[in-house]
Each structure stands twice: as structure tokens, then as C-alpha cells.
């Protein structure tokens, strides 16, 4: 999968243990492409086209979703 992120950056890979347990903590099955992305990048932010996106770190996702 290619990522075209401009004016931003991806973080270093997430810890495997965090990524591997993420689906269970969220209570949903996550797409394989998203799991692969997290194993390459521990979140990040920047522009994709004209949209500014923020990819949360996997260790924060369960708390963010619960609070939301």
C-alpha cells in the first residue's frame, strides 16, 4: 500500500504487542491494511491531497474511542 503524505510525517513503527492486541481492546476486527500500516508507522499526521489527517497512535485508540 502506498501512502502519499505531504507536509507531515509518519512516526516510527508501533510495538508489535500493542498492534497485535488492538482489535481485542477495541472490540472490533480491524482491516489487515490498517494493521500493516500500524506495524510500519506508529501514527503520524500531514496532508493527503487537500485534507489534513491525523493517524492516532494505536496505544491511544481504545481510550480515544471510549471518550468519544
From TrEMBL:
Span of domain Knr4/Smi1-like: 15-50
UniProt xrefs under Gene3D superfamilies: SMI1/KNR4-like (3.40.1580.10)
Protein name as it appears in the record: Knr4/Smi1-like domain-containing protein
Stored InterPro entries: Knr4/Smi1-like_dom, Knr4/Smi1-like_sf
